Amino acid sequence: MPSSPPIPAKKRVLSGMRSTGKLHLGNYVGALANWVKLQDTHDCFFFIADWHALTTDYADPSEVNVNVDEVALDWLAAGLDPDKCVMFVQSHVLQHAELHLLFSMITPLGWLERVPTYKDQQQNLSGKDLTTYGFLGYPLLMAADILIYKADFVPVGEDQVVHIELTREIARRFNNFYAQKNPLLPEPQPLLTKTPKLPGTDGRKMSKSYDNYILLSDSEADIRKKLKTMVTDPARVKRTDPGNPDLCPVGDLHKIFSDAKTLENVYAGCRTAGIGCIECKGWAADNLIKTIAPMQERRREYQQKNVVREIVAAGDAKARSVAEATMKQVREVMGLSHSISPASAGATARQK
Ligand code: SF4
Q1: Is the pLDDT of residue 328 over 70?
Q2: How far, in Å, from the CA of 231 to the mean position of ligand 1?
Q3: Contact 260, 271 (CB under 8 A)
Q4: H-only helix segments in the chain
Q5: What's the rounded mean pLDDT across residues 163-190?
Q6: How far does the centroid of ligand 1 lie from the alpha carbon of residue 149, in Å?
Q7: Does 248 contact ligand 1 (Cβ within 6 A)?
Q8: Is 232 in the pocket of ligand 1 (CB under 6 A)?
Q9: When comparing pLDDT for 277 and 345, which is higher?
Q10: Domain 12-195+308-333 is classified in which CATH homologous superfamily?
């Protein structure tokens, strides 16, 4: 009987999210919705980046644990399935820290200082002292997070490509020093993901730091209240002024969450001043609430079953075994595999 051709192994994807507590629509639209699709087609490892959260929030770690729980719960609510992907917590896999340390031996300082987000973030978060070693080194920790799983792809937006490029440089440098014949750390590729624009209620990028967000777990009443104060096309000063949904943050929400018929009514009504913004925002709220209702239902179910920590612990164990396998190879090629075998330990004891 002819043997069937081997099924090609799925390509590995690695991505993480900082543990900043309950997730908002921006987190969902910008990353999570894509991860939910990727788990069906790729071998996915998703981690909650609690160490990364500490690079900027080191002064007050009081929320770290609860934030990890909230992120895990929102991931499950959004549709990540622990049977299809590995979801784990970064600080539960200590091997990341070991690889980060070893990478720090071989990484020229200039490579880290020139990462554009280093200076940008320092300016954006000027209320925090970010002149720390941990903050400078966070792209290197990111490289360790990725390379320890030998990931093929990392889903990123355009602004993150520079981090993947640094990761690739680190992998090349490592392989050049220690594994020239058989490169040990594969260079990952960015998986560029086009995500729709999702502004916050003030029209700027949705973000916790701007306090302009709508949480995936917000109640219906809260969502309607937040949308009521959302900025609109500034051309619509009076109810009789026509507007343009393409210049309105509420229009952006409709494009993501509303059905074709509603969208048609929004364009027609807004451009002719046939509808008011209050009515239009009501439609946006209806469609948004309808989209996230199944997520909120799943959130309640997982909460009631009280299984989130158990699910994460199982993911931690899977991640740890892959990470440890890589670290064994890394230690070997870096001359760090010296150990006393049981036989030689016995011989040493007899000599005494
Ligand atoms: S009608 Fe809707 S799309 Fe048009 S400006 Fe008002 S809120 Fe925005």
Answers
A1: yes
A2: 9
A3: no
A4: 25-27, 33-41, 50-57, 64-78, 95-106, 109-113, 116-124, 133-136, 138-147, 161-178, 220-228, 249-257, 260-271, 277-305, 308-333, 342-351
A5: 97
A6: 46
A7: yes
A8: yes
A9: 277
A10: HUPs (3.40.50.620)
Nearest CA among 51, 40, 33 for reference residue 11? 40
Given CATH 1.20.1250.20, say whether it is the number of domain 208-303. no
Angle (deg, nearest 10), helices 308-333 and 95-106: 40
Nearest-atom number in ligand 1 for the CA of 277 is 6
Cβ 245 vs Cβ 236: under 8 Å? no
Contact 89, 97 (CB under 8 A): no
Q: What is the reported pLDDT for 4? A: 67
Q: Is 227 in the pocket of ligand 1 (CB under 6 A)?
A: no
* Residue 249 Cβ < 6 Å to ligand 1: no
> Which DSSP letter does residue 243 get?
-
**Model confidence, pTM:** 0.90
* 132 confidence band (pLDDT: 50, 70, 90): confident
Q: What does the pLDDT read at residue 348? A: 47
Token representation of residue 14: 């690695």
Q: Taking the domains of the chain in order of start, what are their residue ranges?
A: 12-195+308-333, 208-303
- Say how many Å lie between the CA of residue 205 and the centre of ligand 1: 18
Rounded mean pLDDT, 150-171: 93
Q: Is the CB of 199 under 6 A from ligand 1?
A: no
Contact between residue 178 and residue 186 where contact means Cβ atoms under 8 Å apart:
no
Contact 47, 87 (CB under 8 A): yes
CA distance 279 to 232: 12
pLDDT at 107 over 70: yes
